[in-house]
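Protocol step 4 of 6: record predicted structures for both targets in the notebook before any analysis. Target 1:
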Amino acid sequence: MNGATKIALSVIVPVYNGEAVLGRCLAPLVAMKLDRAIDEIIVVDDGSTDASAWVAAEAGARVVRSGGRLGPGGARNRGAEVATGNVLWFVDADVVVHPDAAQVLKEAFARTGAAAVFGTYDEFPAATNFLSQYKNLAHRHHHVRSGRDAETFWAGCGAIRAAAFSTVGGFDAARYPQPSIEDIELGLRLRQRGFAIRIEPELQSRHLKEWRLASLLRTDVVQRAVPWARLLEQHRVPATLNVSLGERVRALLAWAFALSAGAWLARLAPFYLPALLFVAAVAASAHLFALFHRANGLLFALGAILFHQFQYLYASAAFVACRLGWSPDRPRPSK
């Protein structure tokens, strides 16, 4: 299918116990369907025990049962099996797309001829607590600052031509039965088969997730850093996103700052050493700092950049530990 072919959008929303957010997710999509900007909305109920299926049906979406807990990758595959459109638009149940998203998506496909297009979160995360603001704004920053020609994919708000999706076999639900990097791995397979993937910053959405420290650590370590390390053992992964040279330098700066701060506390180094290294860390993430400042002011920006150093520490430590053989899901030896 070339860029001039009429695009028929099938929206696929996987959901598991998402009744609290699903209605807000579906509202703009239903409006787009009424305006004929999209062709169908498929909600795949992945074994929910709440009213998610009822919420979807009341909104006017087509409800498909996954047949059990398949995870988001498997649920998306189930939706793709019954979709009729030639473009599959994946939207997470806790994501609210902007009203112009369908039009932006169609224009991006027509303009670029890409096999896949994904967007970004906007600058206004729904949850107002510190970690939610930090996490969602940092996510936006990485997508906006990346090159437009992507090497991976994002399924939170991203679309793939149905033919390309079928050619590579969809999401690897067997490898990723839980939320993880199933979309990133799919993007790598798309690129290995020669398909183009495009980041479109104007394709924006708002994330409804409220991040807490425990969920953030689990996501960054168990669902991100560890799978990344395992993926690198099996595939040649381009140096993009969190394994790019720039990110590696920033991680090294975070470790230097942390070690110098520890040395200062132990009275083994002068105060100005960690101070200088923190300034260097801010400078290395100047665009991210500017986004934090624009969104929530100076104090938030300083606190968020400081927490960002902590994120580099635990994520890089987990990544290296996994490459050396550690695994969080390895059973402990019996006594």
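Target 2:
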Amino acid sequence: MQTSIESAGLRPGLWRKFVLTLEMIKFEHSIFALPFALTGALLAWREQGFLMEGLGGRLGWIIVAMVAARSAAMAFNRVLDAAIDARNPRTQTRHIPAGLLSRQFGWGFTLAASALFVFAAAMLNPLCLALSPVALGVVLFYSWTKRFTALSHLVLGLSLGIAPAAAWIAMTGALDPRIIWLTAAVLLWTAGFDIIYSCQDVEFDRAAGLFSLPARLGVAHALQLARLFHVLMIVCLAILAAVLNLGIAAAVGIGVVAGLLVYEHRLVRADDLSRVDAAFFTLNGWVSVLFFGFWAGDVLLRR
């Protein structure tokens, strides 16, 4: 009897590589930045008076561009850091160090995802196409930064933070300075949770000569800085809601995000990092999804 994979015309080996690739790039974590990009697109639509030809198509290409850019960045990171990951007990089981996927495959996937991103940008508008190399450069550059600066967390934040501004440009063909408040919020949110995640590798980073704020400041002070970043994120969201004259649903969404971030920081202490994964993966996924839900509701209900 044929398996479901064989009956679908896929060879088991090809299917396995496909699954391994999704695992390597942590495809499910696209949910971190995508809701913020879609929020930027909805806010742009609102500012255009809810009148926009081809709205569904634009949203579709925004999603393709976002997923492609993130996939390229993750694959590039895995290729570039393969030797480092092989030495770190926490990461030595990743796909390239473990021999599940080759460096050559990682390079090929990075190029393919980058090309798809540029194509999606071209399908949106000329400004998106013109800016696509800049955006791609930012998201790929992050992987180098841990080699020379402890501010690498902020570069990662910028990589995700440009998503809502890029979505605004995709919808309107121009950049409205007000959306920069959302870029700043996502930057601070991402930098904060990346600092928390990096606390796991303090000893390894110091021994390997890598740079991170936990390695430089110590775990306790780094966690305090992460809290400050998340407080500033809430401030940026409140300012954005005010300048765009959003309503009660958006305000409630900010409150929900603030509550989740408070809980996230209660999960992690300098002397107990055992729940970092729950703080990093689960809670931050809920932050982005619930934020989008409340803000989208505010936009659509007041249409």
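Step 5 preliminary note on target 2. Residues 196 and 223 are 6 Å apart (CA to CA). Confidence is low (pLDDT under 50) at residues 1-10.
Proceed to step 6 after PI sign-off.
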